[in-house]
Design goal:
The complex is a heterotrimer of chains A (483), B (449) and C (442).
Chain A lengths: L7 H7 L1 H9 L2 H13 L6 E9 L5 E10 L2 E7 L8 E4 L4 E4 L1 E6 L13 E2 L5 E2 L28 H8 L2 E6 L6 E9 L5 H4 E10 L13 H27 L17 H4 L4 E6 L2 H14 L2 E6 L3 H11 L3 E4 L17 H9 L3 H8 L3 E4 L27 H10 L4 H8 L1 H6 L17 E4 L10 E6 L2 E6 L4 E4 L9
Parallel strand pairs in A: 1-4, 1-5, 6-9, 11-12, 12-13, 13-14, 14-15
Antiparallel strand pairs in A: 1-2, 2-3, 5-16, 7-8, 9-10, 10-11, 16-17, 17-18, 18-19
Helix pairs in contact in A: 8-9, 9-11
Chain B lengths: L1 H12 L9 E9 L5 E10 L2 E6 L9 E4 L4 E4 L1 E6 L29 H7 L2 E6 L7 E4 L1 E4 L6 H4 L7 E5 L22 H30 L14 H7 L4 E6 L2 H13 L6 E4 L7 H7 L2 E4 L17 H7 L4 E3 L10 H10 L5 H6 L3 H6 L17 E4 L10 E6 L2 E5 H29 L13
Parallel strand pairs in B: 1-4, 1-5, 6-7, 10-11, 11-12, 12-13, 13-14
Antiparallel strand pairs in B: 1-2, 2-3, 5-15, 7-9, 8-10, 15-16, 16-17
Helix pairs in contact in B: 4-5, 4-6
Chain C lengths: L2 H21 L5 E9 L9 E9 L2 E6 L9 E4 L4 E4 L1 E6 L37 H7 L2 E6 L13 E10 L5 H4 E11 L6 E4 L4 E4 L2 H30 L7 H10 L5 E5 L2 H14 L3 E5 L7 H6 L4 E3 L15 H12 L3 E3 L10 H9 L5 H6 L3 H6 L17 E4 L10 E6 L2 E2 L5 H10 L7
Parallel strand pairs in C: 1-4, 1-5, 6-7, 9-12, 12-13, 13-14, 14-15
Antiparallel strand pairs in C: 1-2, 2-3, 5-16, 7-8, 8-9, 10-11, 16-17, 17-18
Helix pairs in contact in C: 4-5, 8-9
The chains are: A alpha/beta (483), B alpha/beta (449), C alpha/beta (442).
């Protein structure tokens, strides 16, 4: 999926889609698009010199130079030598990291979640989807959907995340029990198609129900459904394999758009994202994954301290929700919060340290807050989206560092680990020659509490962060050291 | 399901079940339930099992000796109908929900596991609800408080499934306005659903048999699709899965027995079975067990003829009867519920105790392993300060697999440690909240200390 | 006496009971002899072997030497114990038959302000629940309108007047002890979560919203009592306009009728106590799950508690597992007056076991017995006629073969309003009928 990212000014002239858009969208929008493109100036090849370069694989090079050309890293070497003819960014005294990766999000998605089998009701209005009567109705299943197909390049939240140092994200389709397949994307680009590193990195599963009158109407119903679904997908693969091998004399299997895309996941070849905020959910999901024969990537991980040894023993990676459980400001101040909930609030930020110590592969994402307040802690895992667009990520990671997470391990969780978990470590996640030029430059060690992200490169394109008003100025500035 | 079991076994290996020490309980009265009452009686526990029971047992060197003078030692209570420790229990969207199971959603954090343990309960049958003529699969747990979900599951207990008859599956109380009603709406329909499901299961079994035969003949045929709704029903047809059927009225009880007999199936237990006393001859002839409430009645029409003598009457007609809770609260005093069969129906004290120990254990197919104090059985037991059929009896200690998982003394101590931990955490968390401040956001936000 | 013998005797008594009442043979008398008599009179020890003579509905004589008058029916209670009849301090007996069938349920009227409604209006003397309760020694009960914290919760407001009745009588008027014994007020609950019956799920709202609604509800209650006071004053001044709602509250604001306030949480109990203090009205706390947290307050203001079922789950996950069991003992030790109630109907017969369960957890056995006999009589101003076995008191009593708080104990005879009542009931009849079903041929 890696390909060279053409320089922006060229694309502006060449892209037929842009032309089509200009022709079809409202005049103001067209003008906006045009003015943005015009503002896009500056060098496309850079030497970042003299910084403390954290390669992301454990190596740290002091006073090193990173050279990037045509969107890729050309070299990472000690010293301040920079080839001529490129932009030069003096990073002396600063820290250079691989671009951070938020391991689960809905970044780039603006459209509402799919509403099931939408049909025009009598009179033309929408009618609610008919109740599902069993697994055969494939309730809330949209496995054929690719988040990559619904991306919008102009999602403002991407800029906000860049300002926090994030250059890549895994975006999963919203809604559904099987929402579809998640994409691995870079967080900048004019056209949605330019964002995508890999359009198909994992199957996204949520454990929601639609109420008691439609199957599945219970937590155990959802699990039963997934069991049947993956079983059906395996069966689907088998009968089609036989049929395609030799159709003679065989009843033609039925095409099923819900099953066909699940075949790799059912065979354990593609990761399946499963929610697991609490330890009991971690154990349940890993157990089910073993039973189904699928490869789980868990998300949630708020009792990671309890789960660490278990996850290590089973070699299962987990995405940790950085939205640490907090007190509910709306809650009754006199109500007794269960000790279990207090422990969860206290221990959640200490979880990553335990995961690192146990050797569990983990990454971070900013999900919704799991249910808190009175009553037992939430069950939903904390799916991405909703309030996930804020820039609290690093503050939350720093909390984990305060609670014992080694800084190098924290960096790995922000960079290489998610790249590995989603199979794109050959492209992003470390600062190595040949990798995509996704970088973060901070004024000091990023895990220091007052560290500021100053500059971000995505696909080799510079994005400066104005630290006063926290606005980003995309490539407008001409660096003083050019030439 | 094959994978699950292997996996669970793997998990169990890691569970903290260590039996380093022998334990002797002496000085009290031992209610063995199956072998009479020993007063004084002694029990030796070794490796999670009852090693010896008698008026005088071996006291190995280094054994922990528990002085039960004046107390009553009885087998851990077995609750044949429970809905605790499950995150959901009803898949009400379909008339046949046999693809679901409480075993998939065991909640090891449910404090009711502990509360019931405090009441002397050591084993519970976690059933699916009663929203469907054919409901989901059950899971039998031991109250191994502190274990994870896999560790709670009583390994080796025969699998079961919930059926339900009468008002609940026919949805007689109706649904919110505008919601389409689900078949069935009558007891006739309930029986129909069960019959149809059995017919479907027979056809499914045949489909696989045909496939295997064709394969054996060397024919090239596509494998049939596995159907997790029907597979448990095939197991029912083959007698390898126990049916636990929620029922109230005598007519529906007979209807179920007859449709089951039509397919050669024996119903393992009739649950609630409040009018069981009216058709006790027929139930006994069929060979079903009965698990009933002690004295609930009149909360709905089908419970209007419920009588507290039900357990006794059914017992007198040769039915194996247990008293269940169906309630996290009721389960805390099943010993008292058993006592009601003495009062209403004249059961002997031993018969009464059997109804909450060995009888439900037999009904669940684990009677050879739990339910009475006999050498070789699991060391699941409760120690009451008075005869457990007394209203005043307070359980002092509960052992599961030889481990003391509850004691009054330890519970008291735990309250203090929990209070201290709460105070500490509340202070720590409120400080942290104050430092972070509410709703502060932005890239420069950090933890300020 | 064997079980069968007892049953036969019960039926015989039933017949005589019916005859006595039907024929109005007021001169008929009964004497219970050779019994251990637990009079529960203040400071009195049990009479180890004594007799009780009953005539005209009352205890005429009680003691070790009571001569049986000619014509008195003799009950030999050798080896048995006699106690005052048990009183269920809050029940729904007679107001509901089959919980799920609304046509048979008369517990909850529409509206939040119904002080003028009286339970006695709707008590169904033929309810099958009455003989069932009676057969286990419940001789009289407070019947209260309202949801009483039942399924779905809610129901804040005044649901009407509780009535005290004998659990026997041809008509509700014959059953009457006090038709207007107390005003039932379900205290508003400050809860951020409520169960939505329409969606079958929990609704959540902010604490601020919940607090606003709570404050409004409390203020409205105050306004209603103020209006009742003004109405009473206006009436005295000669005003002729009638408002039966406000009129019904007259005895409450006049301090004659207690408010029976159902409140479970600490905050709600405190709110209710403060309210009644400000209003200067009498309060009896019903339910009181968290009364153990406010013992001193209850003692300070002399507020008695009619405890909800002892056999319930703790209110909080971290609450001690046995808190509901220890609460009665804790309150008793602190000096709070405690009575027990079932708050139900079909399970009213379990009243002694709700009390008995607390004994294992610290409530003295005698206090438990008193909490279902003497104490409720005192709470409702009936102590002159009920609650103890003393000369001149109404003969509501039970003859049992042991401790009535023990489940295995059997109730042998029950006197209600001075006559022995049948111990037959729906359950006993069904039992006997189906016990007689022929066994299959073997």
């Amino acid at each position: 999926m890696v390909r060279r990212i053409p320089p922006r000014r060229d694309r502006r002239l060449l892209a037929p889609l842009a032309a089509l858009l200009v022709a079809t969208v409202a005049t103001s929008a067209a003008a906006q698009l045009s003015s943005r493109a015009v503002a896009d100036a500056g060098p496309r090849d850079w030497a970042i010199t003299g910084g403390m370069v954290h390669v992301g694989n454990g190596t740290v090079l002091d006073q090193a130079t990173v050279v990037i050309r045509d969107g890729l890293i050309v070299s990472v070497e000690a010293g301040s030598d920079a080839p001529a003819g490129m932009g030069r960014l003096d990073a002396a005294g600063k820290h250079v990291y691989p671009g951070f990766i938020t391991a689960l999000s809905d970044l780039g998605l603006r459209a509402a979640a799919p509403q099931g089998r939408q049909a025009a009701g009598p009179g033309g209005g929408p009618s609610p989807p008919p109740p599902s009567r069993g697994p055969e109705d494939r309730p809330d299943t949209f496995s054929w959907r690719l988040a990559a197909d619904d991306l919008q390049a102009d999602d403002d939240r991407m800029a906000a995340r860049r300002r926090a140092g994030f250059t890549s994200a895994v975006t999963a389709p919203r809604g559904g029990i099987v929402g579809g397949r998640a994409a691995f994307l870079n967080l900048a680009g004019d056209d949605a198609r330019d964002l995508v590193l890999d359009p198909d990195v994992a199957v996204m599963v949520r454990l929601g129900t639609r109420g008691f009158r439609s199957f599945p109407g219970s937590a155990m119903g959802v699990i039963a459904y997934l069991r049947q679904l993956f079983m059906d997908a395996s069966h689907y693969a088998e009968v089609w394999r036989m049929y395609e091998e030799d159709p003679a004399g065989l009843a033609r299997p039925r095409y099923d758009r819900a099953l066909a895309p699940l075949v790799p996941a059912a065979a354990g070849e593609q990761a399946v994202l499963l929610p697991a905020a609490l330890d009991k959910e971690v154990r349940r999901m890993v157990g089910l994954a073993h039973e189904f024969g699928i490869r789980p990537v868990l998300y949630g991980g708020h009792e990671a301290g309890e789960s660490a040894a278990f996850l290590a023993a089973h070699g299962v990676p987990i995405l940790v929700n950085l939205n640490w459980p907090k007190a509910d400001p709306e809650a009754d101040p006199d109500a007794q919060v269960p000790l279990r909930t207090l422990r969860l609030r206290d221990r959640a930020p200490a979880g990553p340290a335990a995961l690192a110590a146990a050797g569990v592969r983990f990454a971070f994402y900013m999900g919704e807050a799991p249910r808190s307040g009175p009553g037992p802690p939430g069950r939903r895992g904390g799916v991405p989206g909703g309030r996930g667009g804020s820039g609290d990520d690093l503050a939350a990671v720093r909390q984990a560092v305060e609670r014992g997470l080694d800084r190098e391990a924290a960096l790995t969780a922000l960079t290489m680990a998610p790249a590995e978990i989603f199979g794109v470590a050959d492209r992003v996640g470390t600062l190595q020659a040949g990798r995509i030029a996704n970088l973060v430059i901070a004024d000091r060690d990023i895990f220091e509490e007052d560290a500021k992200v100053e500059t971000v490169f995505v696909d080799g394109v510079i994005h400066r962060v104005d630290t006063d008003d926290e606005e980003e100025t995309d490539g407008e500035e001409t660096p003083g050291h050019e030439g | 399901m094959r994978h699950t079991k292997l996996f669970l076994a793997a998990v169990l290996l890691g569970a903290p079940l260590t039996f380093s020490q022998d334990t002797v309980i002496r000085g009290g009265t031992v209610l063995t339930v199956t072998g009479g009452t020993l007063s004084p009686g002694e029990v030796l526990i070794r490796d999670g099992k009852i090693a010896e029971v008698g008026t005088s047992v071996t006291v190995p060197d280094g054994a922990e000796v528990i002085d039960a003078t004046g107390m009553f030692v009885m087998p851990g209570i077995v609750d044949a109908h429970s809905h605790i420790a499950a995150e959901s229990i009803n898949e009400g969207s379909v008339a046949v929900s046999s693809m679901t199971g409480t075993g998939d959603v065991v909640d090891p954090y449910d404090v009711n596991i502990y509360r019931e343990l405090a009441g002397g309960v050591t084993t519970s049958n976690i059933l699916h609800g009663s929203a469907n003529p054919i409901g989901g699969l059950n899971v039998v747990i031991k109250h191994r408080w502190g274990a994870d979900a896999a560790g709670l599951v009583l390994e080796g207990a025969p699998p079961g499934i919930k059926f339900a008859l009468g008002e609940n599956p026919k949805r007689s109380r109706g649904m919110p306005a505008g919601v389409e009603r689900r078949y069935p709406a009558t007891r006739m329909g309930v029986q129909d659903v069960i019959r149809q499901a059995f017919i479907e299961a027979e056809a499914y079994r045949q489909e696989f048999a045909d496939y295997e035969a064709a394969q054996a003949r060397g024919e090239r045929v596509l494998p049939p699709r596995r159907d997790m709704k029907l597979e448990p029903l095939v197991e029912v047809l083959e007698g390898t899965r126990l049916v636990h059927a929620h029922c109230y009225r005598q007519d529906e009880i007979l209807q179920l027995l007859r449709v089951a007999e039509e397919f050669g199936v024996r119903i393992a237990t009739l649950q609630h079975v409040l009018e069981g006393y009216k058709v006790a001859n027929e139930i006994a002839a069929h060979g079903a067990g009965a698990s009933t409430f002690s004295d609930w009645w009149a909360y709905k029409v089908e419970a209007y003829d419920a009588i507290p003598h039900n357990a006794a009457l059914m017992t007198e007609r040769g039915i194996l009867v247990s008293i269940n809770s169906d309630s996290a609260e009721e389960a805390r005093h099943l010993n008292q519920e058993a006592a009601k069969t003495v009062k209403w129906g004249g059961m002997s004290e031993e018969e009464a105790l059997k109804m909450i120990t060995i009888n439900p254990a037999i009904q669940l197919g684990i009677g050879d392993r739990i339910g009475s104090l006999e050498a070789g059985k699991d060391a699941d037991l409760a120690i009451f300060d008075r005869h457990p059929l007394s209203t005043y009896a307070v359980n002092q200690m509960t052992f599961v697999d030889g481990e003391m998982l509850f004691s009054r003394e330890r519970d008291q101590a735990m309250r203090e440690t929990m209070a201290a931990e709460r105070a500490e955490l509340e202070e720590k968390l409120s400080e942290a909240d104050a430092e972070r401040g509410p709703g502060r956001r932005g890239p420069r936000e950090g933890v300020r200390r | 006496m064997t079980r069968v013998g007892r049953n036969a005797f019960g039926i015989a008594l039933a017949l005589s009971s019916v005859c006595a009442v039907a024929a109005g043979q007021e001169e008929e008398s009964w004497i219970i002899q050779n019994a251990r008599i637990h009079t529960l009179a203040e400071g009195a020890e049990p009479i180890e072997s004594g007799s009780i003579l009953i005539r005209d509905g009352r205890i005429v004589e009680i003691g070790e030497d009571v001569t049986a008058p000619a014509g008195a029916a003799v009950i030999d209670a050798a080896g048995m114990d006699v106690y005052p009849g048990m009183m269920d301090s809050v029940s729904q007996l007679g107001l509901t038959e089959i919980g799920a069938i609304s046509a048979t349920v008369d517990t909850v009227e529409l509206g939040e302000m119904n002080p003028h409604l009286r339970a006695a209006t709707a008590i169904h003397p033929s309810s099958e629940h009455l003989p069932v309760a009676r057969a286990n020694g419940i001789t009289h009960a407070v019947v209260a309108p309202g949801r009483l914290g039942g399924f779905g919760g809610g129901g804040a407001g005044i649901s009407g007047q509780a009535s005290i009745v004998h659990l026997d009588g041809w008509t509700v008027e014959e059953m009457d002890i006090n038709a207007s014994a107390g005003m039932v007020l379900t205290w508003p609950t400050l809860s951020t979560r409520s169960f939505n019956l329409a969606t079958f799920s929990m609704d959540r709202r902010s604490f601020r919203e919940a607090k606003e609604e709570y404050d409004r509800q409390v203020a409205e209650l105050g306004e209603v009592l103020d209006a009742a006071r003004r109405y009473a004053a206006a009436g005295e001044a000669g005003a002729r306009e009638r408002d039966i709602r406000l009129a019904a509250l007259g005895p409450v604001v006049g301090g004659e009728m207690p408010l029976l306030i159902l409140a479970q949480g600490e905050r709600e109990i405190r709110g209710a106590v403060e309210f009644t203090k400000e209003q200067g009205v009498k309060m009896i706390l019903l339910g009181g799950s968290e009364a153990w947290k406010v013992k001193e307050l209850l003692v300070e203001h002399g507020i008695p508690v009619i405890l909800g079922p002892t056999q319930r789950l703790p209110g909080e996950e971290d609450e001690a597992y046995d808190q509901p069991f220890t609460t009665p003992g804790e309150l008793h030790d602190a000096g709070v007056t405690v009575a027990f109630a079932t708050f139900g109907s079909s399970n009213s017969r379990l009243l002694p076991y709700e009390a008995g369960h607390a004994v294992g957890y610290g409530l003295p056995q005698e206090a438990a017995i008193r909490a279902i006999t003497v104490v409720p009589a005192q709470l409702f101003g009936l102590a002159e006629d009920f609650g103890t076995l003393e000369e001149g008191k109404v003969a509501n009593l039970i003859v049992v073969n042991g401790d009535p708080l023990e489940i295995r104990t059997e109730v042998e005879h029950v006197f209600v309003n001075g006559v022995p009542v049948s111990l037959d009931n729906r359950h006993q009849s069904l039992y006997e009928r189906y016990r007689a079903r022929p066994h299959p041929e073997r």
